[in-house]
Design brief:
The chain is an all-alpha fold. It contains two helices and no strands. The protein has a domain of 25 residues. The N and C termini lie far apart (42 Å).
């Protein structure tokens, strides 16, 4: 799928930044996304 390790690392980084942090809900954070949780605690 990936030709180099760097391409794989970049794709994983894009996934984490684009979906995992802003969208995925975490039960440990009361079913909010990490970004939502940070916003709530920063206020």
């Amino acid at each position: 799928m990936f030709e180099t390790r760097q391409q794989a690392e970049q794709a994983i980084g894009r996934y984490i930044d684009g979906f995992y942090y802003p969208v995925r809900r975490h039960s440990a954070l009361d079913f909010t996304s990490p970004i939502q949780f940070e916003r709530m605690t920063a206020s």
